Structures are given as C-alpha cells and as structure tokens.
UniProtKB/TrEMBL annotation:
Residues 76-138 form the PAC domain. PROSITE patterns: PAC (PS50113). It comes from the Bacteria. The lineage of its organism: Bacteria, Bacillati, Cyanobacteriota, Cyanophyceae, Nostocales. This is GAF domain-containing protein.
Length: 482
C-alpha cells in the first residue's frame, strides 16, 4: 500500500519515507483509525477500522481540509489541536462522533532537520469505557441518593418518637416524599371518616387557589384520591391531560392552575388496615416514578400512617377526657338547677358540643298525639322553630324517621324536591344546614319519650366515639324527662 500522490506533493515528500511505519501501525489499530494532517490542515492519510464502522472510506477524507471533512464544531476544536501539534506540541482530546466516543492523540511529524511538516493523529474507540464510566457514575449517584433517602427516613423515625410538633412532622414527611420521588410539588391529607373527606394537612408548590380547592376532598370525587379509595391501591397518572377519569373535571382545572402534568397518590394505611390519609406527588412534566422510588415512598407512607394514627388516638383520648368532664358537669347541673328550661338548653348545648355540630334540639313525645314537641333548640331560624314545633311520624326529617323506626337516624337535606313533600328539607337548606342526626330518648324501661337532634352545615356523620358519648347524654336526658 502506498500513500496517494498528487501534483501538490512531490515524490521526495518526507511523508513517503514513513509509509512502512505508518501502515504497520494502522494494521494494529483494532477499532481505531490513523490520520495524517499536513500544514495546510489537509488530510494526507485516513485509514482504520473506526472509519469503516462510521461508514466512511479513505477517499472521503484524503485530499480534503478538516473544514471540508468535519462538522463545523468538531473542525473548530481540531483546528486548535492541530495547530498546536504543528507548533511542536502533542495533544490528547476526547470527543463524541457518530454515536461513539473516541480519544485522539496527536504527535508532530518532523523531517530530518527537525522541522514539523505534518501531524499524526491516532484515534481509539473508547465507547465501552465511557459507557462503563457513565454506568458507574449512575450507580454511585443512585447509591448516594438511596443513602440520603434512608438517612432521611431514619431521621423521621426518630422524630416520630421525640418530636411534639405534629405540624413540623407533617412538613418533614412531605419534604421527604418530594425528595424521594424528585417531584416538583406534594401534599399530605388526613381522612375524616365521619365526613367521608380528606383534609389537606400540608402542601408544597401549589397555586394558592388550588390549595384552597383541595383543602377538603370528598373521597367519591373524580380525583386520584377518589380512585385510590375505590381501588385501595396507589394511583399514578403519568399525564393528567390524557387521563380519562379526570377529563372535564374541576380537579383537572386545579391541576392546570398549578402547572401539574403528572401525579401519584398513595394511601396511608394503618397497621389494622384503616385508611388514615393520602400522600401525593406532582410533577410539571409527564412522569412515571421508578420502582425504587415507590418502594422508598411505601416506607415513608407507613411512617406517615403511624403518625396520623397516633395523633388520632391522642386526640380521641383528649376528647374522651373533655367529653366525660362535660357530661359530669351536666349531671351536676341537672341535680342543682331548678329551671327546667335552662336544663333543656344545657342538654342541647352539650349535644352540639359532643357531636361537633352547628345546631341542635330536644323534643318530648306527646303520648296522646304521638307527636314530638319542641322543648329547646339552638341555631334554628324562626321559620324552623314554627315549622317543627310539633313533628309527627310523617315528617321526612331525621326526627320523624327516628320516631317511626325507634333507632338513631341520619339524613342529608339536599335531596330532590320529590323527596321533600312538606318542605322540611328545604327549610334546613335555607337555614344553611346539610345534614342531621336524631337519637331517641329511651327510658330505663325501654319506652321512647323524646328525641335529641344535632345539625351540621356540611355533609357529616359523627364518629363512633362521638355517638357513644351522645348515647350517654341521651340517657341523662331521658332520666330528666322521665
């Protein structure tokens, strides 16, 4: 094999004397290539496996300047290096080309008198090495992230034991969830079974209007939270704009307002299987979290569920103590108070407090007519007082229904007009009430003698704990009336 010659390069070109050496080197360059570039930055030689692998032939290079043979950016880089070598200084540079990585080493070629007449460049394919290095860096980064996430989870575990600032713990859990899933936003909610709603405990990154919209979320809503409650499983929406169950909903509008394109919601399950709340992450771009991230999130979700469960247990214990004291004080007043009307008002006030209601009433049963007669009320409008002064079994209200069944009854007032023939439901709605309960007052001999009712300005059902205390109050009220 011989170097190509043309009129610009005479036979006595010093390059001709290096042919044997150059070709021996080229033949021993598996996966590489060799180039000779003269002082005009023109390729005089281009051979090697790397050329063929990239789809080139020697004639695509030989006789052309680097500006003709290379892309502009790469030509600019190599111009600096080649001129450095032509000035007598070797160079080494790494670069990417044709989806591969190369390292190129340039050496000045000198004539017998020491003059640099060209540059010999030997390029090696280092793609495998670069990929291995990238994989190692990626593995090290993941290990570092896992270590940081594990330390954060350990820190939260210790705080669950030591910290008394419950709101700060909510914030820490939310920060950890955002860090673990590398999300842009996040939220944490607590489930209130008596209202069938989730309340927003902490949030990061939302538009304030979205946060207001999500302050209370019904679990039967068209949201990821609603789907989680229906399925009992985590829900991931990789793109809210293509999610069928969110299409055309106010929930989607709230997502758009905060710039949310993807989200996930994970239920917080207590150790006895109860849903305690929800933890959610949100991204500004379509996104699918990794399995590793979700595994770590599940550990965090367990901690969050334990925290909420503990808080609810503590709140219930404190409420038990408060309500027991309230009933004890009422019992003392029932003995000491001479004004019976004042006692009735005290019973109504206690019923409202025990059930965390907005209004209430107490009625006595007229044995002759079997009507319920209003004894005392709080929070009722004059129209309600007049309308419900006497209630019979035909009333569609909670007290009317309870009178028929003899059992505690719950009702919601926002029903179709066809279900409200006497307008009783409408009167409650006009007064701002959406739901109520009525508990019969039963004597120790088992005889129904009255009713105690409470009303709420939202859809609500008292907790089992609240109803137990209401039953104790009903016993006291029945003893007083009897």
């Amino acid at each position: 094999m011989q170097l190509k010659r043309d009129n610009q390069h005479p036979i006595n070109d010093p390059l001709q004397n290096a042919d044997a050496l150059l070709w021996a080197m080229i033949e021993n360059l598996p996966g590489g290539a060799a180039f000779v570039v003269d002082s005009d930055l023109r390729y005089r030689l281009a051979e090697g496996e790397a050329l063929a692998a990239a789809g080139f032939k020697p004639e695509d290079w030989v006789g052309k300047t680097i500006f003709e043979a290379l892309p502009p950016g790469l030509a600019a880089t190599y111009e600096v290096q080649y001129r450095k070598a032509l000035a007598g200084e070797p160079f080494e540079v790494e670069h990417a080309a044709h989806n591969r990585f190369y390292i190129s080493r340039g050496t000045p070629l000198r004539s017998a008198n020491g003059e640099v007449y060209a540059v010999l460049v030997v390029s090696y394919d280092i793609t495998d090495r670069k990929q291995a290095e990238a994989a190692l860096r990626d593995k090290e980064a993941k290990l570092a992230q896992e270590l940081a996430d594990t330390k954060q989870l350990q820190h939260i575990s210790s705080q669950l034991i030591q910290s008394e600032n419950i709101n700060a713990l909510y914030e820490q859990i939310l920060d950890a969830a955002i860090a673990i899933l590398l999300s842009d936003m996040g939220s944490m909610q607590m489930f209130y079974p008596e209202q069938n709603e989730l309340r927003l405990l902490a949030w990061k990154g939302f538009d304030p209007a979205s946060a207001v919209f999500w302050e209370w979320v019904r679990v039967d809503s068209s949201s990821t939270c609603g789907v989680v409650f229906n399925t009992g499983e985590r829900v991931i929406v990789a793109d809210v704009e293509t999610c069928d169950f969110m299409a055309g909903t106010e929930d989607l509008d709230a997502c758009r307002l905060s710039g949310i394109r993807a989200m996930q919601s994970t239920p917080l399950i207590s150790r006895d299987g109860r849903v305690m709340g929800m933890i959610s992450n949100h991204w500004r771009e379509p996104h699918q979290p990794s399995e590793r991230e979700l595994r770590l999130l599940d550990v965090l979700a367990r901690q969050a569920a334990d925290l909420i469960d503990r808080r609810q247990a503590e709140a219930d214990a404190a409420a038990d103590l408060e309500d027991m004291q309230r009933l004890h004080e009422l019992g003392a007043r029932l003995v000491a108070e001479d004004d019976i009307q004042t006692l009735y008002q005290e019973i109504v006030a206690t019923a409202i407090a025990l059930t965390r209601a907005d209004a209430g009433s107490i009625q006595i049963l007229d044995e002759a007519t079997q009507d319920l007669v209003l004894l005392a009320t709080q929070g009722s409008t004059p129209e309600m007082i007049q309308h419900f002064h006497r209630v019979n079994a035909g009333s569609n209200t909670s007290c009317g229904r309870a009178l028929v069944t003899g059992d505690r009854t719950f009702v919601d007032f926002d029903v179709p007009q066809s279900e409200d023939p006497d307008g009783s439901m409408r009167l409650h709605l006009e007064a701002g009430y959406l739901s109520a309960q009525s508990t019969p007052l039963i004597t120790r001999s088992g005889k129904a003698i009255g009713m105690v009712s409470t009303h709420w300005r939202k859809h609500h059902r008292p907790s089992d704990r609240e109803l137990r205390f209401l039953d104790l109050l009903a016993r006291q009220a029945a003893d007083l009336i009897e």
